[in-house]
Each structure stands twice: as C-alpha cells, then as structure tokens.
Amino acid sequence: MSQHKVVLLLGSNLGEQKKNVELALKKLKDAGNHISQTTEYLMSEPVEFVSSNIFCNIAAIIFTPLSPIQLLDCIKNIEVEMGRVNDSKVSGGYTDRIIDIDIIKYNELNFQSERLEIPHKKHLFERDFSRVLLKNFI
Known about the structure:
Blueprint: E1 4-12, H1 17-30, E2 34-38, E3 42-44, E4 55-64, H2 68-81, H3 88-91, E5 100-106, E6 111-112, E7 117-118, H4 121-126, H5 128-134
Antiparallel strand pairs: 1-4, 1-5, 2-4, 3-4, 6-7
C-alpha cells in the first residue's frame, strides 16, 4: 500500500492544550498513520475570533495510506472522540476548541471540495503562527 506524505497543523486552546495535541498525535498513529516529524510547540493568540484562551500549536509530517477524504474523516472522528462539538465549516465561524487538526499539504496534490482544500491556503499564506511552524516543512 502506498504511503502519502502529509503536513498537518494541530492546535488546542481548551483544557490541557499540550496534552490534547499529544493525544491527537497518538490517535493519528493508532489509526495507522506514521508520525515522521513534529515541530516544537508554539503558543499563539486565537486568529479570526476573540478568546482569552491561548492556543498550543504544532506541525507534523505524517505518512498515511489514506486518501485525502479518508484522512479527513479520520481526523474529524478524532476531533469528535476528543470532545470537539463544533466544526468551523459547519458553524461558519471559529470558536474555542479542545482540538483542531488541519491538513495543510498532501503530497503535491491540489484538491478542492466542499469539505477540504489542499493545500490549505489560509495556513500557508495568511496566518503568522502557521508560517512559523511550517517554515521547515513546506
């Protein structure tokens, strides 16, 4: 089975943020993905919404046998298992969240659907914290 190189961004601004991100990485691994590399943690202010809760963010390179949509479904299942109740695509806005996992790149694929855009242009070009985390990954 072929393995696809994927860049993810993970973040949490509720509860024990670092532990939430670590648990999400473990769940990704348990789902059959290989975590190849991670960045240092980066604390950042919320972007595009107001909150007093600071985010703990990390970037990761994983290798997965899953297709982009299968990986998105896997990620959404992990977010729900961990207690995430709102999805910005569904709710139309950003709020505090226990975990957020975004697919930034999937091989060199350009893909767009109602549910998924690869590469994730907001993280690549618009968000400072993302550019800091991704500078050695992209």
